């Protein structure tokens, strides 16, 4: 059962490679792609540039933890991208929140950029490319063919990972066709009397039971293999750890139950690893008073991404950052089924929200175009660049000496 | 099993040492490659291994072990490996309805909420106590990782008690080895974890400390490994001094080199 999730290909690796043509393999699941080197199934986070940074995508059975930015604007956006990607790929959704009604969250999902003209273009391109390939293999720019396709054109990832238009919302028809489950904490509390297993905050206990029930009922744990077509469950949990979940780690340094959140994450991890699902959680990390909790939470999650928006900070007006809306810190990338993890070359990453798209880019200094740049302003830039490198390197702690 | 690390530690799978407590410690980086090393090392050495894997699933360890040339399912069938998959047991404790037959689940404490690692210790003891028919060399306990126990609500005292009991049983009584992984950070606010790490450092015979580079991430050097032998001071020789090497993790191997001697910068 566990082999389904992160070691899907393991079983295949041992078994003979022969496979009947009609047999649906795990790779046939919509909206996923197998990572052959790792032997796992990847799915898109909804932001192709984030997928590229995380080594191709999120592995099925893992947990993506987003540390919210101060006002929760951009983390909310990533949350919605993740869910919208699920809807477009035909996955099942599970939306849990203590603040907004899940139905309202779904109504505000961004619309995918999937118009027909665009699709036709892609097809044409592909056919042209194929006919070229079938001819004599001659290429002028042969040196570039081995380069990684990081920020390729949208066409390259049109099946895995989509681009979304944040200015429009998802069409209601698309929403109706997807199967989704809701968990709205205020409703759930009024439904049942107080229950408490394993000394967790009751909201967490309920949420876990609810997730477990759906995984079991809908067969995401592989318990009814012949019942129906396999699918992926995307779980989204909003503002976990905030006061609304009945948690006091945001209010005090010495909360009553320091282990509630970490226990929840461990049990959630066990649920995820045993099923065909992936989870996104946003946590208001800047509010959590006791930093020890955040360290443990990081250890118990798979991928950890921190967002730092410039809104309200002095960096907003800094000329260095004028192209960007914030910095993104990749705190942790899981090493699944392998000794090493795919780490991108640079850790200096920034995000920006264009008119329609949210993208993550490598941070670089803006070009100095004016002729009358004074020396002092250049120095300013250099200073702020220093400030940046100290703030950005996720692992850079000391700055005193070089090791080599 | 990484051959270069064996050379650095003067260890060989033909004659594994007995009665040592090895602490694997990582700071700002992931030290799990050391766990994979010791798992494959002791399986190749023909020791009976009890692996308490709390943080990852069996399939993960299995895929990596295959890359290192060891088959975990085969070792399990031979009876050489006893694998406790923490995530799976946790699920069974909480969501499986039927009462367990006979033995209590080692992770019973998650459900009960108390701070009691007795069931886990009993599990370790029964699985490592040699029976008549066994022909394995010495018993080995591997834990990945101890910090999880603290996250699950154990008090530091209970965790230290658990390790102490294991050490007394496995190291002294059965003449075996204990290998344990912990996470730590210098600037950590997690005082409970630091307490456990310090106490375990004090008890250990050998510390392998993987650190991320202080200057930040580098593509060609993944970190540095401090080897700190902690034998009695009288017996210490030249080779028992603490040493530091830098390492680079590859797909199936880890290369070690002296500081500043990376092939990439020379």
TrEMBL record, chain A:
Pathway: tRNA modification; 5-methoxycarbonylmethyl-2-thiouridine-tRNA biosynthesis. It comes from the Eukaryota. GO terms for biological process: tRNA wobble uridine modification. Pfam families: PAXNEB. Keywords: Cytoplasm, Nucleus, tRNA processing. The keyword Membrane does not apply. It is found in: Cytoplasm; Nucleus. The keyword Nucleus applies. InterPro entries: Elongator_complex_protein_4, P-loop_NTPase. CDD domains: Elp4. Its main location: cytoplasm. GO terms for cellular component: cytoplasm; elongator holoenzyme complex; transcription elongation factor complex. Belongs to the ELP4 family. Component of the elongator complex which is required for multiple tRNA modifications, including mcm5U (5-methoxycarbonylmethyl uridine), mcm5s2U (5-methoxycarbonylmethyl-2-thiouridine), and ncm5U (5-carbamoylmethyl uridine). The elongator complex catalyzes the formation of carboxymethyluridine in the wobble base at position 34 in tRNAs. This is Elongator complex protein 4. It comes from Alligator mississippiensis. The gene is ELP4.
TrEMBL record, chain B:
Pathway: tRNA modification; 5-methoxycarbonylmethyl-2-thiouridine-tRNA biosynthesis. GO terms for biological process: tRNA wobble uridine modification. GO terms for cellular component: cytoplasm; elongator holoenzyme complex; nucleus. It is found in: Cytoplasm; Nucleus. InterPro entries: ELP6, P-loop_NTPase. Keywords: Cytoplasm, Nucleus, tRNA processing. Belongs to the ELP6 family. This is Elongator complex protein 6.
């Amino acid at each position: 059962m566990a082999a389904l999730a992160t070691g899907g290909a393991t079983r295949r690796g041992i078994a003979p490679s022969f496979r009947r043509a009609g047999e649906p393999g795990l790779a046939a699941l919509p909206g996923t792609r197998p990572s052959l080197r790792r032997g796992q199934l990847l799915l898109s986070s909804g932001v192709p540039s984030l997928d590229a940074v995380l080594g191709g995508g999120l592995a099925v059975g893992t947990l993506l933890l987003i540390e919210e930015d101060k006002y929760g604007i951009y983390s909310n956006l990533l949350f919605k991208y993740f869910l919208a990607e699920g809807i477009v790929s035909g996955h099942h959704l599970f939306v849990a929140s203590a603040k907004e009604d899940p139905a309202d969250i779904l109504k505000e999902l961004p619309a995918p950029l999937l118009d027909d003209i665009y699709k036709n273009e892609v097809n044409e391109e592909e056919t042209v490319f194929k006919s070229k390939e079938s001819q004599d293999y001659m290429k002028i720019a042969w040196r570039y063919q081995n380069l990684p396709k990081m920020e390729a054109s949208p066409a390259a990832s049109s099946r895995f990972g989509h681009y979304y238009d944040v200015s429009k919302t998802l069409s209601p028809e698309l929403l109706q066709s997807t199967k989704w489950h809701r968990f709205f904490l205020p409703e759930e509390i009024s439904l049942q009397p107080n229950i408490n297993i394993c000394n967790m905050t009751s909201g967490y206990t309920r949420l876990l039971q609810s997730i477990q029930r759906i995984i079991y009922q809908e067969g995401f744990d592989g318990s009814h293999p012949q019942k129906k077509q396999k699918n992926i469950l995307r779980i989204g949990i909003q503002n976990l750890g905030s006061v609304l979940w009945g948690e006091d780690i945001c209010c005090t340094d010495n909360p009553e139950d320091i282990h509630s959140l970490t226990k929840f994450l461990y049990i959630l991890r066990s649920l995820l690893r045993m099923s065909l699902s992936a989870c996104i959680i946003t946590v208001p990390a800047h509010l959590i008073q006791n930093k020890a909790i955040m360290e443990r939470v990081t250890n118990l999650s798979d991928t950890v991404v921190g967002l730092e928006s410039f809104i309200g900070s002095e960096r907003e007006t800094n000329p260095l950052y004028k192209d960007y809306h914030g910095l993104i810190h990749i705190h942790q990338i899981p090493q699944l089924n392998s000794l090493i993890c795919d780490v991108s070359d640079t850790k200096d990453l920034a995000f920006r929200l264009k008119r329609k798209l949210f993208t993550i880019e490598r941070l670089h200094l803006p070009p100095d175009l004016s002729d009358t740049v004074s020396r002092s302003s250049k120095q300013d830039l250099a200073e702020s660049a220093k400030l940046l490198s100290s703030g950005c390197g996720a692992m850079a702690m000391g700055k005193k000496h070089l090791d080599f | 099993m990484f051959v270069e690390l064996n050379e650095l530690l003067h260890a060989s799978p033909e004659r594994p040492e007995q009665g040592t407590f090895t602490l694997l410690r990582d700071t700002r980086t992931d030290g799990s490659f050391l766990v994979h090393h010791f798992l494959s090392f002791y399986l190749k050495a023909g020791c009976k291994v009890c692996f308490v894997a709390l943080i990852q699933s069996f399939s993960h360890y299995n895929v990596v072990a295959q890359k290192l040339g060891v088959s975990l399912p085969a070792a399990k069938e031979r009876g050489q490996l006893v694998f406790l998959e923490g995530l799976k047991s946790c699920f069974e404790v909480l969501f499986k309805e039927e009462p367990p037959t006979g033995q209590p689940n080692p992770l019973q404490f998650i459900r009960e909420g108390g701070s009691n690692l007795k069931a886990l210790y009993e599990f370790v003891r029964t699985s490592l106590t040699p029976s008549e028919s066994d022909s394995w060399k010495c018993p080995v306990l591997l834990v990945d990782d101890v910090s999880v126990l603290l996250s699950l609500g154990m008090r530091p005292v209970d965790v230290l008690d658990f390790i102490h009991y294991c050490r007394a049983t496995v190291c002294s009584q059965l003449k075996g080895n204990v290998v344990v992984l912990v996470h730590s950070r210098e600037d950590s606010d997690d005082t409970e974890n630091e307490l456990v790490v310090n106490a375990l450092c004090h008890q250990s015979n050998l510390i392998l400390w993987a650190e991320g580079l202080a200057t930040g991430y580098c593509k060609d050097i993944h970190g540095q490994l401090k080897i700190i032998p902690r034998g009695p001071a009288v017996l210490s020789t030249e080779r028992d001094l603490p040493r530091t090497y830098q390492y680079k993790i590859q797909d199936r191997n880890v290369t070690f080199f002296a500081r500043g001697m990376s092939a990439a910068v020379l």
